[in-house]
Amino acid sequence: MSESQGTTGSMVYKAGAVTGDEILVDGWELIVGLEVHVELATATKLFSASANRFGDEPNTNIDPVTLGLPGALPVLNRHAVELAMRIGLALNCTIQPSTFHRKNYFYPDQPKAYQISQYDQPINIDGFLALPGGKKIGIERAHLEEDTGKSTHIGGAGGRIHGSDYSLIDFNRAGVPLVEIVSRPDIRTSEEARQYVTELRSILVAIGASDAKMEEGSMRCDANVSVHKPGMPYGTRCEIKNVNSIRSLGRAIDYEMRRQIDMNEAGETVRQETRHWNENDGRTHTLRSKEDADDYRYFLEPDLVPLDPSPEWIQAVRDAMPMLPGARRARLSASTGQPADGEAVMVVVERGQDDYVLEVAAAGGDVGRALIHVKEGFADEGATPTVPAADLAGLTRLEVGGQLTATQAKTVLAEIVANGGGDAAAIAAAKGFEAMDTGALEAMVDQVIADNAAVWSKYCSGEEKAMGALVGAAMKASQGKADGKLVTALLQAKRTA
Amino acid sequence: MTPRTAIQIAAGVRAGTLKAADVLEEHLARIDARESDVHAFNLVMTDQARAAAAAIDAAVAAGNDPGPLAGVPVALKDNMCTHGIPTTCSSKMLQGWKPPYDATAVIRLAAAGAVAVGKTNLDEFAMGSSTENSAFGPTRNPHDLSRVPGGSSGGSAAAVAAGFASVSLGSDTGGSIRQPAALCGVVGVKPTYGYVSRYGLVAFASSLDQIGPFTHTVEDSALLLDVIGGHDILDSTSIPARQPSLRDAIKQDVTGLRVGRITDLPEGADPDVAERLEAAFDALRAAGATIVDVQVPAFSYGLTAYYLIAPAEASSNLARYDGVRYGLRVNAADTNAMYGATRVAGFGEEVQRRIMLGTYALSAGYYDAYYGKALKVRRLIADDFDRAYQHADVLLTPTSPTVAFPFGSKSDNPFAMYLCDVYTIPTNLAGHPAMSVPFGTGAEGLPVGVQILAGTLGEPQMFRAAAALERAMGVSK
Amino acid sequence: MSQRITTADVVKVAKLARLDLDPEAIERTTAQLAGMLEHFADIDALDLDGVQPMNQPYPLTNVFREDIILVGLDREEVLAAAPEAEDGRFRVPPILGLDS
Ligand SMILES: [Mg+2]
Ligand SMILES: [Zn+2]
DSSP letters along B272-335, please? Predict the structure, then answer.
């Protein structure tokens, strides 16, 4: 998120290429849709009672259903359905009656040689995810399906599938419940893609649906990428797989966009295919083309019955939903006056410390200062900081009252955090902090003006930047005791005078 | 000699007047004498059966009740999983495979005190009507060793007919219990879909498969269904509602029962079979039932719908036999080559044919013309039956168009074999219960069965009619 | 129904089904499937407009299991039944990719 939108690989967003809503690169518009698979935080598998647990010894979380033994039958996990419903509600979807299909294909990590997945009637449809800046990315569907086992490739070129001597299969992950969240192709930049996945991850964690760890594979992302010229139909898309981090997602999309633009401009045709992101060379590579795509022979899974959650059940799930990150940011923004997608609000909500900031305000503290203190000073604290809200409130009151400068307050805060609490006034007194009285401050400011006459005249002739140097000089002269806001106000007053 | 029926055996064992061990030894002696001719079993579980029988006797001696099937020797179709005991589906693909778990029906039988004597032969993966498609050689009809026992549960039917077991379990996807029951002269029942748990039954066609009993008497079948039937949380398609006791149901006679004759039934039954069906109508009329005419216009489309739907489901159900986790593997240079070599070596010709047919019926471009259309025909058939059951409580048809036929007589023409199931298939499509009751003999003195059909959960009426036919035949118990 | 099934169709289907049929088996299967599909053309005469497909015979909805872990299978017992196992896992020949 903090990465610049400027250069990535060979790609440069050209300033001034933006017309209306379109962001154009060499005249081309990027179109991205994301398919995100998340493993649900259930105790057991989607269709059986063996454990859904990451990191166990291979093939220890197995049962007849997981292994696809002859005669085994699936039975749907109620909690998995409930978590899928939470995801649907969090993504503003409609929850509808749904069914399960068999997707038939042979692969060693797919024990039954079919995946049970929701096909033409998924549980959640037609929603959206709002990015922090407000843009809505449409959600086509968020459906339930089962995960596969895991293959390890032995021999050949170091664990890669190609050229390996043989493979070993662990079925612990087989049958783990997944929700596949399919966005509409509403994403226009790699930055939006990163924001989408980051925001989605926050939502999933907030609602307890998944731990959503890309590094452990509990959240996996495929990107459908195409480019077109505005006013023309969307181009042929390629699906990019094996993107293992949010950073890689951005890189992979940018690389793929450039590749497709270059092909188009060279008069070549982009083929519809699945491509594989290689983290090492920073390129995407053909995995398989559409011509040899499998014929999955979908049909309704006869071993399962339709799913039709009652309105009462849906309402109960809705009632139990926590406040989502977007709403929490809006709330904090409203009470602090800081922008909802500004860094302070984003960071504090991401850490789950927004409730705490509001508690400080409720305890009589200054909410704006509390936000900054929590953002700057509570990075190592969890969602429920140990410092009593009243103590932080006390600190902010001293600042507002002019008894402490910002710099002094920072020092006091550090001590409060280190001690897990404390009376700000007492700490300030012990450190000998006292705010300069107004007369002394004004004398000091006059001295600063005299010492920096050239800068002062620049400031007076309208060069606002010069103010910073003057304030800095004042702070230095006062050894941090001066209140920066008061100094600024005095300088402004003296210029107008 | 000890009694044959489960009711009598269990009563004697529970009362302490009969030893489970003695009952078992008599059955084992008959197996010794005739099994090499009949080949009903893929595996005779002599040691396990003796241990189980001894445990039953010990329980009785200790004053405990082993349950309603105490000491009853039962044979299990070899497509039901038995923990630690080979379950082959009569296929090279699963030869030697020992499941690490038991089927629900197997657990319920054991919990009721039954003694499993062996795993019975079948058409490979239950695909066939003669048990000729077994990878381990055919089962012969105990009534005439030159003839088939029917199929696919031919081994289970023959085991009961030959006295190798008092009762047995089979599975019925398109007639695989009822047709061999008719050809071997025993009672065979396919319950309503969902009546008996399918957990641990190796799937052929999931939306059609049902487990059911083979017995000498109608009451024994009622007893077995009372034991193995009922809800199972491990099978999502298992019917949750508690079902009335069928042993209680048959205490009621057929006075006032409306017995339907399907006037537009597909023709093709042999005259001897047709004659026994007429006799059955007469017997039920004489017992107080009313005979009514009904139509089931879509009945004759059952065969087509079935031979598209069942292979389609089978093609998916049998895809798991890939040489990775269990069963046969033919090694090759890569996984895809390994799959292809393994599956062509492990599956017999009929199984391969149905996998091909089913894969085709589901494949891109053909789904609507074949599988999708068959599902609609299935609906027509169910709807037609439902209309017929507004006028009749049960329907009567032949079970099989013919008596037991000689080996090889239909094996070179798949479609001729498929016609064996013309009367049994439509009920599987509708999910309704149906059963075959022996009703005299036809050509060459071979057994003829009459099929009784009922609507969803119509087992009580169906069993009442069956008991009445049995009484009319004066079956000895 | 559709046009007659061809050898090419059967080759494609055999590949989908992972059955290594030899040319003779392909020919035989083509003839047999063609014969059967001819019989199955009887349903072409039916008017199926508006008929709802019937997937399952007994109508049930919302059948669930609670999210509780139960004892699973013993790994050694399961791997002992596997064609090939190594290091607590199932061993397979090299995987060439989703399609090959
Ligand atoms: Mg997908
Ligand atoms: Zn998916």
Answer: HHHHHHHHHHHHHHHTT-EEEEE--GGGGGHHHHHHHHHHHHHHHHGGG-SSSSSS-----SSH
The H or E element that residue A25 is part of is: strand A24-25
Q: Do C98 and A44 touch (CB under 8 A)?
A: no
Show me where the domains of chain A are located. Answer: 8-317, 325-430, 438-496
Q: Round to whole Å and give the CA distance between B152 and B143.
A: 17
Please list every residue in chain C whose beta carbon sits closer than 8 Å to the beta carbon of residue B325.
78, 81-82, 90
Q: Write down the ipTM of this complex.
A: 0.97
**Domains contained in chain C, CATH given:** 7-44 (1.10.20)
Chain A residues whose beta carbon lies within 8 Å of the beta carbon of residue C56:
300, 302, 305
Residues B241-281: pLDDT tens digits? 999 999 999 999 999 999 999 999 999 999 999 999 999 99
Q: CA–CA separation, A487 vs A449, rounded Å?
A: 12
Q: For residue A310, how far is its CA from the centre of ligand 1 (angstroms)?
A: 28
Q: Which of C9, C16, C18, C27 to mutate to test the interface with B (most CBs of B within 10 A)?
A: C18
Q: Is B315 a catalytic residue?
A: no
> Minimal Cα distance from B360: which residue of A?
A297
| B400: pLDDT strictly greater than 60 | yes
Give the model's pLDDT for residue A20.
52
A 10 A CB-CB count for A409 gives 23
Say whether C92 and A300 touch across the interface (CB within 8 A). no
* Domains of chain B: residue spans and CATH: 6-248 (3.90.1300.10), 300-373 (no CATH)
Beta bridge partners, A102, equal A116, A299
Q: Cα(A5)–Cα(A382) distance, rounded to whole angstroms?
A: 30
| B206 noted as active-site residue | no
Query: For the residues B27-47, what does the mean pLDDT come to?
Result: 98
Q: From CA A336, how far away is CA A348, in angstroms rounded?
A: 12
Q: Would you call A141 helix, strand, or coil by DSSP?
A: strand
What confidence tens digit (pLDDT) does each residue in A424-439 have?
Answer: 999 988 888 876 676 7
Q: How confident is the model at residue B474 (pLDDT cuts 50, 70, 90)?
A: confident
Of B19, B77, B119, B190, which is the active-site residue? B77
Give the residue carrying structure tokens 């071997």: B184
| Rounded-to-integer distance, Cα B298 and Cα B295, Å | 9
Q: Report the separation in Å between the CA atom of A21 and the middle of ligand 1, taken as the mean of its atom positions.
A: 29
Query: Which ligand has the shortest distance to the CA of A182?
Result: 1
Residue in B98, B359, B375 nearest the CB of C55: B375
pLDDT at A242 over 90: no
Decide if pLDDT at B92 tops 80.
yes
CATH 1.10.10.410 fits A438-496, yes or no: yes
Chain C hits for B430, Cβ within 8 Å: 57
Q: Is the per-residue pLDDT at B365 higher than 70?
A: yes
Burial A343-359 (b: 16+ CB within 10 A, else e): ebbbbbbbbbbbbbbbb
With contacts defined as CB-CB under 8 Å, which chain C residues touch A302? 55-56
pLDDT-derived band of residue A407, with 50, 70 and 90 as boundaries?
A: confident
User: Any catalytic annotation for residue B411?
Assistant: no
Looking up tokens 């219990």, which residue turns up? B177
Query: Phi and psi dihedrals of B92, rounded to 5?
Result: -60, -25
pLDDT one-digit tens code per residue, A432-472:
887 667 677 888 888 899 999 999 999 988 888 888 889 88
3-state DSSP: chain C helix, strand, coil percent, rounded to 5? 40, 10, 55
Catalytic residue among B129, B152, B221, B238: B152
